[in-house]
Amino acid sequence: MKLGYTIVYVPDVEASLAFFEKAFGFERRFLHESGTYGELATGETTLSFAAHELGHTNFEGGHVAASESALPLGMELGLVTPDVAAAHVRALQAGAREWAAPSQKPWGQVVSYVRSPDGTLIELCSPLGG
Length: 130
Fold this sequence. Notes:
By secondary structure, the protein is α/β, with parallel strands linked by helices. The chain is built from three helices and eight strands, in the order E-H-E-E-E-H-E-H-E-E-E. The protein has helices at residues 13-24, 52-58, 84-93, and strands at 5-10, 27-31, 37-41, 46-51, 77-80, 97-104, 110-115, 121-125. Strands 1-4-3-2 form a four-stranded mixed β-sheet. Strand 6 and strand 7 (110-115) form a beta hairpin. It is globular. The chain starts with a strand and ends in a 5-residue tail after the last strand.
């Protein structure tokens, strides 16, 4: 078994794809003609976005929408980059909200946190061990 997809439920799939393209340079791989599902090429694991209405059809009891929560959900997308500070600035310029400025952790890794316009918590971090 391997991790194939991370799917984030969002209010506007097209807007989320556009933000991640602009903020992080990912390439769009797919957007369904309905506009309710899209994918970005990010490496071996696909980062996907699905509309909240699609989530409501998948989950009888509904789901928690990060876009409607003042606090981030108890999960994050971790994006690894050699230049956290530059990635952090680029994300803010693309419309992210700062959650924690870049700082060096005791184990040497540089980490920052932003929230995308759709409410997704994103960790920007340097590679472990350098």
